[in-house]
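Course assignment 3, question 2. Fill in each field.
Student: A.L.
Task: Predict the tertiary structure for the chain below.
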Amino acid sequence: MYRLHGFCQSGNTFKVALLLRQLGVPWEAVHVDYMNGVTRTGDWREATNEMGEVPVLDDGPKRLTQSGVILSYLAAKHGAYGGATDDDKVEVLRWLFFDNHKFTSYFASYRFMKAFGATAPDPAVMAWLRGRIDGAFGIVDKHLAGRSFMVGETPTIADFSLCAYLFFPVDESGIDVPALFPQIGAWLDRLRALPGWGDPYAILPGERIAPRW
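Answer field:
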């Protein structure tokens, strides 16, 4: 059985949970008390992940970190959601890199500062991030015009990676993504209809926290 270390506020953990549920394989969640700083301790980093991040996936004795690596590993191991052709596999990888570097990166940082930061976010930083979010989301919104999923005719790990943070409540980010980017909104509806979908606060461990700012 897979063991997925993470917590309910983590969209990166949700990416992996969504794939595991879609694959229909046995797995269990291991709560990581990120909000109280456990991942910053030397003991946790020594025992679990030197990078101080979740998700962490245990597959028997094998331990994997970084969501893009975990998604790629699971897709290859199970022969599913990695792309139907060699060209599709390269395209999936391209969107995974785009997601990690820009799409999720900017949005997750913005959401964290607004919802969970210890101090009120700096308006100048938030304005800069918002411009980057709008640019990255505009690219994906345009790409989705006339297609159902990011690569090919069926969902792949590119979809699961890009979508994860967008299933959290709007008040955590203050950005109504479906209203601003209608192609993304329709795509999220299609992903929500998949049999393996579940609300991150329902399927991952931890307590929901009201946005602070």
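Instructor remarks: The CA atoms of residues 103 and 137 lie 7 Å apart. The chain has a mean pLDDT of 98.
Grade: pending
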